[in-house]
Specification:
Radius of gyration: 16 Å
Structural class: alpha/beta
Bound molecules: S-adenosylmethionine
Helix content: 25-40%
CATH superfamily: Vaccinia Virus protein VP39
CATH class: Alpha Beta
Distance between the termini: 32 Å
CATH architecture: 3-Layer(aba) Sandwich
Number of domains: 1
Shape: globular
C-alpha cells in the first residue's frame, strides 16, 4: 500500500502534462481533480471536505493541508482499513467505512457549517459492483436539502451519468436539481459536475 500510493502520486505530474499536451486522453488527470477540489474549497471558504470513495486515499493525501476536517467514505473494508491506518495519526482526517448513501446522510447531520462534497464513488459503474441508481439522488437530496445552506458539490465522472435504466442524465441534472433545490448553479467542466449556491464566487482554474 505505501509503495502503491507513492507510485500513484509520482505519476500525477506526467499524467497531467500528457493530458495538457495531447488532445487524448480526454480523461482529466487526478492532479486537475485535486486542483479543482482545492480551488472550490478556497473560493467558497469551506473548511470541511467530505469525499465519497476513498480508494487509495490520494485525494485525502493531496488535500490534507487545505481543510480543517476531512471525512472520506469507503465501502470496501480492506481499502477503508488501509486508509484508516495511513491517516490514523492525523486528527483532522476520518475514514468512514460503509455505503456512502447510508453514511453520508448520517454524517451530514453532524455538520454545522457548509462543506465541500467530492462525490467520487463510482455511482453508475465501479468494478462490477451491483449498481444502486438511487445512490446519487439520495446523497444529493441529503446535501441540498440540509438545513445548513452553502454546501458545494463536485461530482466526478459526469460522462457516466447517461440515464441508465431511467436514472438522470448529466443534461437533465441542472433542471432537475434547480426544480427541487432552487438557488443553485449547475455546470459541467472537465467532466466534473459543479453545484454551487447561486451568486457565489466562481472558481477560476489555471
Ligand atoms: C474512483 S475511486 C475513488 C477515487 C478517490 N476519490 C480519489 O479521488 O482518489 C471509487 C471508490 O469508490 C468506492 N465505492 C464504490 N461504491 C461505493 C459506495 N456505495 N460507498 C462508498 N464507496 C464506494 C470504491 O470502492 C472505490 O474505492
Amino acid at each position: 500500500m505505501p509503495f502503491y500510493s507513492a507510485y500513484k502520486a509520482l505519476g500525477h505530474y506526467p499524467d497531467y502534462w500528457y493530458w495538457k499536451l495531447r488532445p487524448y486522453p480526454k480523461r482529466p488527470p487526478h492532479l486537475l481533480k485535486q486542483r479543482t477540489v482545492r480551488e472550490y474549497g478556497k473560493r467558497h471558504s469551506l473548511r470541511t471536505l467530505v469525499e465519497t470513495g476513498t480508494y487509495h486515499g490520494e485525494m485525502v493525501a493531496a488535500l490534507k493541508n487545505d481543510f480543517d476536517h476531512i471525512f472520506s467514505i469507503e465501502c470496501d473494508s480492506e481499502l477503508a482499513r488501509r486508509a484508516s491506518r495511513r491517516f490514523d495519526a492525523n486528527p483532522k482526517i476520518r475514514i468512514l467505512q460503509g455505503e456512502s448513501q447510508v453514511v453520508l446522510p448520517e454524517l451530514i447531520k453532524s455538520l454545522a457549517e457548509p462543506a465541500l462534497f467530492w462525490l467520487d464513488a463510482g455511482y453508475y459503474s465501479w468494478a462490477g459492483l451491483p449498481r444502486d441508481l438511487q445512490r446519487l439522488p439520495t446523497e444529493l437530496a441529503a446535501i441540498l436539502g440540509h438545513s445548513v445552506r452553502g454546501h458545494v458539490v463536485l461530482i466526478d465522472d459526469a460522462d457516466t451519468l447517461r440515464g441508465l435504466e431511467g436514472a438522470m442524465t448529466v443534461d437533465e441534472l441542472p433542471s432537475r436539481l434547480t426544480a427541487h433545490y432552487p438557488g443553485r448553479h449547475v455546470e459541467v467542466i472537465d467532466n466534473i459536475v459543479r453545484i454551487t449556491p447561486e451568486h457565489s464566487p466562481k472558481a477560476e482554474l489555471d
